[in-house]
Amino acid sequence: MASSALPSTSLGSEPSSSGTGVERPERHVVEDGRLIRRIVRRDGSEIETDLGAARWQLRDPHAEADRRLLRRRSAPDWNSSAESAIRVVDLFSGCGALSLGALEAARALNLPARVELAVDVEQAPLDVLSASLGAERSVRRRDLAVALDGEIGEPETEAERLLLKDIERGPEVCVAGPPCQGHSSLNNHTRHDDERNDLYLRAVRFVELRLPQLVVIENVASILSDQRRSVELAEKVLKGLGYQVDHDTVSLDKLGVPQSRRRHLLLAVAQGISPVSVAALVQAYRVPDPERRNLRWAIGDLADCGGESEIDRPAVPSETNKRRMQLLIDEDLEDLPDEHRPPCHQKGGHTYKSMYGRLSWDRPAQTMTSGFGSMGQGRYVHPDEPRTLTAHEAARLQLLPDFMRLDLATGRQQRARIIGNVAPMKLSYGAVLELLR
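RE: above sequence
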């Protein structure tokens, strides 16, 4: 990875190095009472953004910058209509979290950007994406197993021409989050040998047809155990197309996501572009103090939201579960004692200890899933209140800012599914920043 000399540190600033010899291309400092973000370009020049007033004694400027983005009520101006806008294609897009990371990377460099195409099989997350990211004309509801139906190495099919007719070759960025249920450790039936795992290669088929400059594909860490060899086959095809490819697992808390969660990341860059390994990317863009990105950092301001909107109303628990939640709080427990669990979870008869558990303000959350509204599906009980997380809180923990239009989803289950399927924006942010800086 290319590196450049960075400005000397000052009060309220981050160190210029991660401690591993990898320079930090992105820094946040407090100067003259202002929170400043600086990006060092490869030619040594700097892009500076004033993020607003800040106290001199601010201990973690980076955490404050990310928190301000999370709490934004209106979307930033990505100048998406500019003719020179960075073009982003998002496959299996969900509500567009990976697109958001790409757009924010471009904005950090004062570059215009837009979502050129976003495809998902469900309409509800596309509605959220289009309204939140200014991509009303770019969304397509399609099953990519059908819309990208050509075999690798074969000519473009009629279905593919229809999907991609407005997409020119060489978009700057392609991000993809293929469905991961086939690889999930919670899938005990067809794990690692599930036909949904083949969708991973549909993203590779798009790459073959339109040759983007940067490819970012994320999935669960256990995809490396896939019996259908999805990652191995993807790497082989991408290298055959001339891409430089690297993949690895990533601990999301290192990148500033307030969850103890691991994901697999594959990066592919076109010929002529400086390659970057996943490990080097994590070292360059890891946050200065991951422990500061705890539950309180993410949702501490939402404790008194009062349930004024649907996304701020928790699920109504059964009386039994309400008593269990109150016991956790009254006894200051994180794990529910066996004698208070359902019979199937007693006497060591369960392997998921976090189920029926209570969150801690001072630590990150566990992996967010669509079950965040049920204490029986994970450690989702609020630290201070006898309830589970609201959709608003779960969205924050997935690094979805407040301007994301989750209110457009119809019903609690639909919102939960959208939030649970999110791949946090930090998985694409650093990779796109490296491409563009």
